[in-house]
Design goal:
The chain has a domain of about 110 residues: OB fold (Dihydrolipoamide Acetyltransferase, E2P) (Beta Barrel), CATH 2.40.50.140. Helices cover about 5% and strands about 45% of the residues.
Length: about 160
């Protein structure tokens, strides 16, 4: 049976990335992203904004790109997978759960302010897409043998 572990986030960076290198030379960058939702409070009727914080980990070239271009407060789009873990709190001795997002795609959003280059107009232009290379090329669907509806099943599945 196939399974899927995919996360898509669109939010603002809460801090500048921390880039470090493992003994193997592999780059690793960590950043926090805030996502917000708005809802109406049942008791008061006022709109309430709830913010969730997500820990993102980038590896290899994507980590280097994140370290160079991602800045605190900047909106970014991230795709990745969930990774669950745990650690023991040193002060209480209790086991605590962690949830990290291992990023596979990164796209910088918003204007180009602070990125350098010739067009620092801050006019809402999109930054170039930055993403990790795909692990394997995606196979394209084979071309249909016939055109038209001759090869379609007459049974409707609903």
């Amino acid at each position: 049976m196939a399974s899927v572990n995919k996360v898509i986030l669109l939010g603002n960076c809460g801090r500048d990335p921390e880039v470090r290198y493992l003994p193997s030379g592999q780059a690793v960058a960590n950043v926090s992203i805030a996502t917000s939702t708005r809802r109406k409070d049942k008791n008061s009727g006022e709109m309430v904004e709830e913010t969730q914080w997500h820990r993102i980990t980038f590896y290899d070239r994507l980590a280097e790109i994140a370290g160079e271009y991602v800045k605190k407060g900047r909106p970014i789009y991230v795709e990745g997978r969930l990774k669950y873990g745990s650690y023991t709190d040193k002060t209480t001795g209790q086991e605590k759960a962690t949830v990290d997002i291992i990023a596979t795609e990164l796209q910088l959003l918003g204007g180009r302010e602070g990125m350098g280059g010739p067009s620092e107009d801050g006019g809402g232009s999109r930054a170039p897409a930055r993403s990790a290379p795909a692990a394997a090329p995606r196979a394209s669907a084979p071309a249909p043998a016939k055109s038209g509806f001759d090869d379609m099943d007459d049974d409707i599945p609903f």
